[in-house]
Design a protein that fits this description.
The structure is a homodimer. By secondary structure, chain A is an alpha/beta fold. In chain A, 37% of the residues lie in helices and 28% in strands. Chain A starts with a strand and ends with a strand.
């Protein structure tokens, strides 16, 4: 049995989890890989830092000298779990040029630099695997790359962020406002003290870029993704959604349309009957529509040390097995399709609008008039007396071009009968 | 670009779907595989048979002479989609011995002969892929073999049969009896005129054997699976389930316990809150519990020409790519764990009992006494006046050893106060 040596970059949550999993399940991992997989060196910034909970065996592997990993000919696979973009990218490029195989959990890097890295791996005939970069243990990267490889993918919709799904689920089940649900997520360790990366939608945006590139064999990058977070969602919106047969979810959506790919992350009214509407708490799920496989959903924990380590180890085993079988196949450059991204203004969708208006006759007709003038037709409307001299109007539109919607809102907000536009949220069609 | 030639055995629903998909998506399939994949010959029993809907291009490839495929050195991959056991097994063994790679959709064969075939593939350094043999387009085989390879699998529970799930869903949503729901499934083409393979649980039993072997790296075969079908489920049971917070599903369950693996297919009261409880209609789903990845669910269409073809084509692309990259890795014999199957009498579970009894004082106490005498303790009980002098008792037990449950039922049925034991159905614990 051949020995395969790993050089790991980073020993944070994911790195610690990976090392621990390799140790814990060593017996059958080695049998499955038909290789003796050994952690050889771990590159860290500060070798003297106190690392509670890290075993003394692991501490002996630490180094702060990159050459100990890169110039070590015994090391076959570099596992990059340091995170961040610049330094990680430098390391990964160096490793690929030195013909090391790469396993990375780095979504920030992959969402921006996948194209360059794929080319570099192709050139050097090395393998670059990145299952852990999207939704941890949910095996979406491999499923898109391989199992569904013969399918034309029409659409990928996902709940790709557990923090925001926890917050929305809590707002729904307990009727609390965003700020209270966020505080609870912070207290439970599901959200960071600075939660922007999650609640503003940046994190699921990165994951979506990675998935869309695989699914559409096209260069799709983080900057291509139109992103709205969940910070403006009110308890009131959640309650209206429920009344109308929907649940509000932060949906990452990569849809193939005739003239290109639309990549959006934003809150969506999902019909109760849609499988994604039922994904609650910190769970993630990805729903794929394709021409032959039909509708498929993958569901699981999208974050956490153990779940992320599971994906890293799966990739390590795959490479180790191939090295031992002498059957390493380089990735192949798969982003061969012409790059066509649809701007969000051209996207088409139904909308939910909630606005506070003067409670006087003719108000609804004026608003409907403005909408109609912009080709926005109304699917359903609810008007309720709010308080004082105000009423609340909730409108769901038919499918409209986003730009028309935005233009009509510009006009509506200037009407003297309109006090405030409370919320504008996209609505997913019934199946 | 190298040309990879396919010899296909069988041109039924799945074979036709596979050929059509290869034609329809040829452009990007070839780009992804980096190979020119060509259907070369199709072996059928009767070359003169009328085949409506099959293109003339395909008809030209038909042969009834096996040597046209097996002895053709240009053919790299044999796709076995004829189904059945004996003849298919003979063909697949011959092909492996001739160093052809195999893609099969044959669950009957894999559920019984996987062990022999894995050894034969290993010996001949050929690849044997069988994603399509379990739940069509749901990529469960690859996910278990690769993505979760580093995990200790605790349990796999699945709704592995769309026909029975359609019937149970219809009984639930419309309150109809089994026979009416079955007739509807036959009318819609979801069930065959002889529906035994589905409704008796044989089909999901085969799929479970295949999955358990992968998950536990152990020889598990169809005969090891304890199987009960859905034919005895009454509308009444479905209605009690709903009242008590459950939904009845036909669950295939492979659970690792200290002393071995329990492999069961039977109807189960699933708690409403369990993701599998919400899988409706013809959809399938597989729920996997493992040490690091946690809980993962895969959901999709588990049958049909297109969905099955999707899996076949995924496997073909994988092999074609590896041939072209000169990176064929033989399967490796993975059933290395000692074979330990737990008999169903030793299995432990909660039970739902529905029985009709004489409506007289002391009846419940007598029944509870018998149960208690066999170490079966009661979790909850409902007693309702039925009609005439009969009452209906519904009991949910705590977790008990199956043999104790069966022994107590033997005794209960002989009590003169008991008119009939209506149903005995396993109950899944709340999470």
């Amino acid at each position: 049995m051949k020995t395969i040596r790993i050089g790991m970059i980073g020993l944070g949550t994911v790195g610690g989890g990976t090392a621990a999993m390799l140790e814990k399940n060593r017996g059958f991992i080695n049998k499955t890989a038909n290789a003796n997989i050994v952690m050889d060196k771990i590159l860290v910034r500060d070798i003297t830092k106190d690392r509670p909970g890290v075993s003394s065996d692991l501490l002996e592997l630490l180094t702060d000298n990159p050459d100990d990993i890169f110039l070590n000919d015994d090391i076959d696979i570099i596992v990059e779990v340091m995170g961040g973009t610049e330094m990680a990218l430098t390391y990964v490029k160096r490793a690929l040029n030195l013909k090391k195989h790469i396993v990375t959990a780095n979504k920030d890097m992959m969402a921006v630099h996948a194209n360059d890295l794929f080319k570099l791996a192709e050139k050097n005939k090395t393998v670059l695997l990145y299952e852990a970069s999207v939704c941890a243990a949910i095996p979406i990267v491999e499923v898109l790359k391989k199992s569904l490889a013969g399918n034309k993918i029409h659409r990928i919709m996902g709940i790709l962020n557990g923090t925001t799904n926890y917050i929305l689920t809590k707002m729904d089940s307990e009727g609390v406002e965003y700020s209270e649900a966020l505080q609870d997520a912070i207290n439970k360790g599901y959200a960071e003290r600075n939660p922007d990366s999650d609640v503003m939608g940046y994190d699921p945006g990165r994951k979506l870029a990675i998935l869309a590139a695989i699914a559409y064999n096209m260069r799709v990058e983080y900057d291509d993704v139109y992103i709205e977070g969940i910070t403006k969602i009110k308890a009131e919106d959640i309650s209206y959604a429920s009344e109308l047969g929907y649940r509000i979810k932060l949906i990452a959506d990569a849809k193939y349309i005739d003239n290109g790919v639309k990549v959006h992350v934003n809150p969506v009214f999902m019909p109760d009957t849609h499988p994604l509407a039922r994904v609650d708490g910190v769970y993630n799920a990805i729903y794929i529509e394709s021409d032959m496989a039909g509708k498929i959903m993958l569901y699981g924990r999208g974050a956490g040390a153990d779940a992320t380590a599971s994906a890293v180890i799966g990739d390590i085993i795959a490479i180790a097995k191939d090295i031992c079988e002498n059957s390493i196949a380089n990735n192949g450059y798969t982003l061969f399709n012409e790059r066509k991204i649809i701007g969000h203004k051209d996207a088409v969708s139904q909308f939910y609008l909630r606005m506070s208006v003067k409670d006087s006759p003719g108000v609804l007709s004026k608003i409907a008039g403005v909408l109609g003038g912009h080709n926005v037709s109304i699917y359903s409307v609810v008007q309720e007396k709010a308080h004082d001299e105000l009423a609340e109007i909730v409108i769901i539109t038919h499918s409209v071009v986003e730009e028309n919607m935005q233009n009509s809102l510009q006009e509506i907000i200037n009407l003297d009968i309109v006090n405030e536009i409370g919320s504008v949220i996209r609505v997913e069609d019934e199946e």
